[in-house]
Amino acid sequence: MLEEVFGVRKPIIGVIHLTPMPGSPRWDEQMEPIFLRAEQEAAALASGGAHGVIIENFFDAPFTKGRVDTATVCAMALACKRVMSVCDLPIGINVLRNDGLTAMAIAATAGAKFIRVNVFTGAMLTDQGIIEGQAHELLNYRRQLACENKVKILADVMVKHASPISSAVDIEQMAKDTVHRGLADGVIVSGTATGSSPTLQDVHVVRKALPNTPLFIGSGATKENVATLLGVADGIIVGTSLKRQGNTENPIDVERVRSLVNAAKEPATTKA
User: Fold this and answer.
1) CATH number at residue 28
2) Are 42 and 85 in contact (CB under 8 A)?
3) Strands 129-132, 91-94: parallel, antiparallel or unpaired by DSSP?
4) Residue 3 is assigned to a structural domain of this protein
5) Is the pLDDT score of 268 beyond 70?
6) For residue 252, what is the DSSP state?
7) Which end of the chain is more exposed for a tag (fewer CB within 10 A), N or C?
C-alpha cells in the first residue's frame, strides 16, 4: 500500500492545519486567507521533501463529535482542490473530531488518496464526550462511492486527547480489532496530545500485533527521534515540529521540513 500511494517505503506525511472554517465558532468570514495559507504550506511540504499531505480542520475547535456543518464540508473540499493545484503529492483528509463519512466524501469527490479516522472501532472518552467508531458505516459508504481501491483508511489506535472507556482494554487488542474486525488499511499510534510522541513500547506492541499492516506515527515526530520511530513504524504523520519555532499555531517552515526529512534518512542514534 505505501509504495502504491506514496511512492516510497517510509513516507513522511505533513499536516496542513486549516485555519478556522465556516461552521466553526472562530471563523472570521474570509475564505481566501484559509486557501492561501494552505497553498503556501503545501508548497513548503513539497519543496522540503515530504511524501504526502494530510489536510484537517484543526483550528475548528471546539469540535462536534458527530457530522460537521455542511459549510465546513464544502470549504474543506475547496481547500483540498487548492492544495492539489500547487502540489502533486498524495493528499489525505481528516475531518475532526471524528467525521469519517465526510472525510470519505471529500476524498472521493476531490481525488484524495486516504483519510484518517480518530475513532474507527470501539469507543473513546474525549473532550467531546463518548465517541463510538463507525467502521461498518464507513466501509459500506466507501463501497457505495465506488472508491474501495482509491481511498485508503488510516485509523488511530488509542487516539490522542482521548481515553478508553474501559481500563481493561489494551493497545494490542485495540490494534488487532481495528484491522481484523474493523478492516482498516493502516493504523496510527500517537502520544497523549498534539505534538507528544508515543512511547516506543506502544509502537513495538502494535508492530508485533500487526506485522503486515502499515503502521504510522501520528504525533510527536521530530528531527531528533524520527529515525528511531521509523526503525519500527512504516511512516510518519507530522505537524507541530514542522511549524516555525515548533509552534502549532504557526505556518509550516520549509527548512524544518527539509531538516526532518533528512534526519529520517540517517541511522537511528537516539531514543524516541
Assistant:
1) 3.20.20.390
2) no
3) unpaired
4) no
5) no
6) B
7) N
Tell me how many domains the chain contains. Answer: 1
Rg of the chain (C-alpha set): 17
Asked if the model's pLDDT at residue 186 lies above 70, the reply is yes
Range of the domain at 83: 9-264
H or E stretch including 101?
helix 100-110
Distances (CA, A) of 65 to 19, 96, 152: 19, 8, 22
State the pTM of this model: 0.95
159 in any annotated domain: yes
Q: Do 156 and 188 meet the contact criterion of CB atoms below 8 Å apart?
A: yes
Q: Is 245 helix (H, G, I), strand (E, B) or coil?
A: helix
Answer whether residue 154 is part of any domain: yes
Whether residue 196 is contained in a domain is answered as yes
Give the three-class secondary structure for 207.
Answer: helix
CA 63 to chain centre: 16
Q: Is 111 left (phi over 0), alpha (psi -120 to 50) or beta?
A: left
Mean pLDDT, to the nearest integer, of 38-43? 98
CA gap 204, 58 in Å, rounded: 28
Q: Which residues pair with 216 in a beta bridge?
A: 188, 235
pLDDT in tens, 6-20: 999 999 999 999 999
d(CA 202, CA 160): 13
Q: Which residues neighbour 127 within 8 Å (Cβ) at sequence distance 6 or greater?
A: 62, 161
